[in-house]
Amino acid sequence: MYQILKAEQLADKIYLMDVKAPRVARSCQPGEFVIVRMDEKGERIPLTICDFDREQGIVTIVFQIVGASTLRMAGLKAGDAFQDFVGPLGQPSEFVKEDLAEVKGRRYLFVAGGVGTAPVYPQVKWMKEHGIDVDVIVGAKNKDLLILEKEMESVAGNLYVTTDDGSYGRHGMVTAVIEDLVKDQGKHYDVCVAIGPMIMMKFVCKLTKELGLPTIVSMNPIMVDGTGMCGACRLTVGDEVKFACVDGPEFDGHLVDFDEAMKRQQMYKTEEGRAMLKAMEGDTHHGGCGNCGD
Ligand code: NAD
Ligand code: FES
Question: What is the pTM (predicted TM-score) of this model?
Fold first, then answer.
């Protein structure tokens, strides 16, 4: 069992938990994720890692209530425990595996949208720990939905906060800030990392393509079981078929077919849609989720 040491509500429907998981904490890297399960019958929930303390053996997760399982999870308190806390899973962020001198030679722009701020935080923290100052844009619908601002401020070189309704920081979406920094202020970046809702990543990529700014995105939102079995996270990257939970979750955003991914995400929500996907995709749909008749 994996004990919850701290459970805190960050904003409406958004929760943070510190979980005692020494083995995961010892080896996890930015970009990776874990699968949690509340009990034997519980659904497997893939969640990005928000922070980790290797010495204390603690992993921090942040999640949003999106269905019955996450609603139940939000009811857990400090002292309760998860039955399973499996990880780290997926591939770490590219820069973790690259030559440090090369990474240090680049100008990074991180773009975090809503709950996507949680997986961006350990990446920016990694940069800070390696002596790299990066620019960070954090976008939220409004002031009340902004999360981890202080934490991000302590690790970012420059932090630009924006809200869709202008209730805090700048007024507008993250794309408006990118345009301001690059087009109006003449800032130059070599890499953009954008993590947030699918629609945000799609429009950030459309803009950064025009700007000639290579962009990495995290396709976590399309994962269902996180094990490579259900086929839900199948996506097209360039001319290749990939699975977000095994090959990702991070990909070259300029090659991701967002429209297809968002359409599949909608279809996967219904039984009829899943049956349709299985008929269309055959073996490459895996079918191991148990929902497709296999
Ligand atoms: P949200 O809808 O509040 O959006 C966050 C920000 O994204 C907005 O403030 C805005 O700046 C930007 N944005 C939204 N639509 C945009 C558009 N059309 N053009 C440009 N910018 C746009 O976000 P939320 O409710 O916190 O998001 C929840 C979603 O985030 C869930 O679907 C969840 O799956 C996903 N999520 C993704 C990751 C990931 O790894 N990619 C991690 C956690 C959560
Ligand atoms: Fe990747 Fe199920 S989430 S196959």
Answer: 0.92
